[in-house]
Amino acid sequence: MANPLIPKAAAALGPALARHGLDLLASLFSGAKKQGRDELAELIEEKTGIDVNDIADDKLDETDWGRLRELQLTEQERLLALVPNRNARRSHERELGSEDLAVRRFRHNYAVLLTVLTFGFIFKAAFFTDYDADGPALRIVDTVLGFLLGVSLAAIIQYFFGSSQGSASKQVQISSILKDAAARPSQGGQDDVPH
């Protein structure tokens, strides 16, 4: 069993790993909850024999960093399973596979409801309300419009037309590159180790 992760070390792990080109591990330690960090620490100690507290204290030599790079390549699928967004995607896939029509369409119906309410508010605020030029009601409408357009509507548009698809295709590319790198025969030189 891995040594318990010292809270001070947990904060230092992400930056220490990132400095050595271990971005996947760094992002996992930076974004993981305590249970995920402990699970990750156990995996690292099990596969490499390295105590994560030593990583945070910068006590590793180049051989240890090489073993961590190898772990990041060989255990990529297991590491990606710890990424929080991936669990959200799995949840969404389960929702889409549900036999209950309300469950399958909830996200879409919710997005339509927010969009209709946003445009309804904009239409009412623009055409059916009189405001004083310096009145407080105008400032409130400005704030609500800014929130609706800048947060709610932008998030809906990004979810359905932007970031989810781009993120998924980026992940496919990263997986392909790492699999190709892992499949290449090693020459034993430093040039083979991704930084």
TrEMBL record:
Protein keywords: Membrane, Transmembrane, Transmembrane helix
TM segment ranges: 110-128, 140-161
Protein name, as recorded: Uncharacterized protein
Species for this entry: Thioflavicoccus mobilis 8321
